[in-house]
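Quick note —
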Amino acid sequence: MQPVTLSRILFFRKLVLVILIAGLPIAIPVAELTAQNKVVDSLEQVYVSVTDLNEKIETLLLLSDEYLDKNVQQAKRKLALAYELLQKETDPKLWIKYHLINSVFFRIDGAADKGILSARKALQLAGSHPDSSNFKAQIYNSLGALYDDKSDAQQALEYQLKALRYAEAGNDEQMIATISNGIGRVYLYLSEYEKAKTYYLRAIEIKERRQEYDKHLANSYNNLSNCFDAEGRYDKSLQYLDKSIQLKEQIDNTVNLIPSYNNKAYTLLLMNKLDVAEKTIQQAIFLADSLDITIEKQYAYSTYAEILFAQNRVALAEAYMSKSIAMSKESNDLYLAKYNLDLMYNIYLKKGDYKKALEFYRERSIVLDSVYNINKRSEIEKLALEYGTEKKNKEIALLNAEKELNEIDLKKSRQLQLAFLLVAGLAVVVLLLLWSRHKNKAKTEQLLKETLARDYEKKLSETELQALRAQMNPHFLFNCLNSINSFIIKNEQEQASEYLSKFSMLIRKVLNNSKSSKVTLANELEALKLYIELESLRFGNSFEYSVSVDPTVETDYLEIPPLIIQPYVENSIWHGLLHKTEGPKKLSIDIKQDETLLICIIEDNGIGRVAAASRIKNSVSKRKSFGMNITKERLEHINQKHDERSHIEVVDLKSESGDAIGTRVTIKIAI
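Predicted structure written out below.
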């Protein structure tokens, strides 16, 4: 019997797809691990048999992904096992996959905020990964879907358009189709059916052309049916719903069958086929209750309530609608709330309870204002316009390039014709060219001199900036090597080894960062944390420190000059905290963003600048902080070169009695 391996499992996952493409029933001999149920069984065997930690984690993540479509609780258990094993593994790729799958799980589980947190963790890790663009397309798409579930159409569209740009840049058609489906869903809930249909049809065209008959294509069929419902083309809607249900049944996509049954029941309700609609929605409710998926239950209960109301079974309709309203409020689903409150308004009108009906009418008006907020709509239109303009500009640039090539070819053809037809005039043309060249020579030389002069000024400014950075590196290296030397002299071998290991990591970071005029804030903070750990080790962990970054700051995208923050942290430790003799020593670094400025606040509870200056004056070593002066000069050069307004503020902290209790440095960097 052949051993079960990960590569073999992945082969059979593709095999199932090939069978669907061919239109054949999924029935292969058991020995060949047929269909997706066999894929799950085989992955379970792999997990038991493999010993390599990475393979075990990879297998658990594949299992979690498979179970998300069939058994959400089982997916949760597999993710928990993967998390336990990941504590022993630092491979960022595995952590990215874990957080990404976890975000999808939380979305299915109705916990959108937790899903957003997981997606952001994946995004933070993906920033420096070699496969960053591919991961970011998936992560931004997940964030877009989560914000869509939170009824935040503007944020959802912003993230999904970001995802689409990454997918299009990588020419990843599979991802483009998935993201297009998500964008269509946003426009669907905004009742902009033509825009929604455009994106759904784009997703379907890609999938069918590539013959990828998977859950994403099934979802696109399902979502497109809503657009046909809005147009009153119910037969067309049922046609796509049946295709969606058939495909989901073939690939055993149980979880996603629920919205398809729900949509079909609603279409049948619109067609006034109430008995068939009730049987269909009961299928959706049975699956949603069995799998305990809140987000699907709230929609199924809502549809069932509408069917019951149409059948004049008002009391039962009210009971199911009350359940749906409670769930939609808990999940903050404003899109569903607007329909639910509208039906409750009609239910109480029918019952003759006008006071209660008025309450639901008012609540419905508030929800409608939130969903159709004018400002949000203008932002959404702006996002869509930006994406459309960007795409059109690329197309125009491509057409212009083709036009230029055609014009060059045409010009060459005409020149050849003229060469044959006007041999006699060739001498005149040559003379004219020579004269024109002679005339323009002086002008060209003058322009060249001016260009060289400008380049010289620019290079001179850049050279001065590089020289200042070069001063920073030797100064910083000297301090670190001095620390290692101190441990060696004291014969503290373990601390020396630990210090040397961290020092090598720091040097690599510093050297890499120094090659660029700007680095990401994430890279800068990573180097800074290593530096503080080294100083903490050197001084026997005698001071406490914290580094906090405001969640709104995108550390992977913001870029700042390298080694801007470190000199001030060094000064706080050496001249502020080192000489403090009483009480705990504390250092805090807070990063936040204010419009066009990145604000870094470095605060210590040391002896203060006056006492520090006095100690330096009386000290034999006369240790001075050149780093701060260099940093100040660097910012002045950068401000002059790029017309920026970065600056540094230093404040002496004092108690009510006027005693020095520390120093606060605020660095404001233009971004």
